[in-house]
Amino acid sequence: MSLTPDYQRDWPAYFDAVANQPPRDTLVRALDAFEKDDAPAAKPVWRVAVDIAAGEGRDTREILRRNGATRWKVMAVEHDFQGCDRLSKSVSHLHRDRLYLNANRMEEVAAIFHKGAKIGSTDRLVRQVDLINASFALPFCHEDHFPALWDWILKTLKPGGRFAGQIFGDRDEWAAVNPRRHFTREQTLALLAPFDVEHLDEVEKDGSDALMRTKHHHLFHIVARKR
């Protein structure tokens, strides 16, 4: 898979490559942390999540599947038609009433929430959420829109809410395509200043991307709890 200067990908090929893959580790860590937070409650605690650039749904399905101390309603935001179609068809009928699929780009997600968003089968408007998941998504946000998207993440997460996802580092091979979409460790920590960082794993290695093309990877895996 080649990466063009405007960061476009062959998304259908990507969806084929990751089909049937497990949920991302950062998401699982965040969900497990909520389970620990909510376990003392006498009844399950209902929470709301947004899955940014949800793709074919590997993370969305995991959020909906959880059936322990924490249970979830999810807005899955995905701009690609094939991604939306695959996600919709893959979600169990038992979970469909807790899913709202929104066919928009991540750059447009703030506008979705400006007047409140409807999530699941309820008519209740939601303006703040408990979890924002962005698995390997933020590097594909247009650099001119990233500050507004990150500001939306900060404002939309409730105190105690979590962000789970990845940021690409400045030594990643793709930084040569567009360095403004890549961050140093110091810049990443600055972004995370309003959070208590529960997991930060900096990875730098040579390896394969999703379509088995060799590249040099530098990225940060993040789970962070908003203060």
Helix content: 25-40%
Mean pLDDT: 90
First-last Cα distance: 39 Å
Secondary-structure content class:
alpha/beta
Instruction: Report the β-strand fraction as a percent range.
Output: 25-35%
Overall morphology: globular
Quaternary organisation: single chain
Largest sheet report: 7 strands, mixed
Uncertain residue segments? none
* Strand element count: 9
Biggest sheet strand line-up: 3-2-1-6-7-9-8
What value does the Rg take, in angstroms? 17 Å
Instruction: Sketch the topology as an H/E string, one letter per element.
Output: HHEHEHEHEEEHEHEE
Number of helices: 7
Question: Could you characterize what this model shows?
Answer:
- The chain has seven helices and nine strands, in the order ααβαβαβαβββαβαββ.
- The chain is globular.
- Helix content is 28%, strand content 30%.
- It starts with 10 loop residues before the first helix and ends with a strand.
- The chain has 227 residues and is of the alpha/beta class.
Structure, briefly:
28% of the residues lie in helices and 30% in strands. It is an alpha/beta fold and 227 residues long.
Topology, please?
Blueprint: H1 11-18, H2 25-38, E1 45-52, H3 58-65, E2 70-77, H4 81-90, E3 99-102, H5 109-113, E4 117-118, E5 125-126, E6 129-134, H6 146-156, E7 157-168, H7 185-191, E8 195-208, E9 214-226
Parallel strand pairs: 1-2, 1-6, 2-3, 6-7
Antiparallel strand pairs: 4-5, 7-9, 8-9
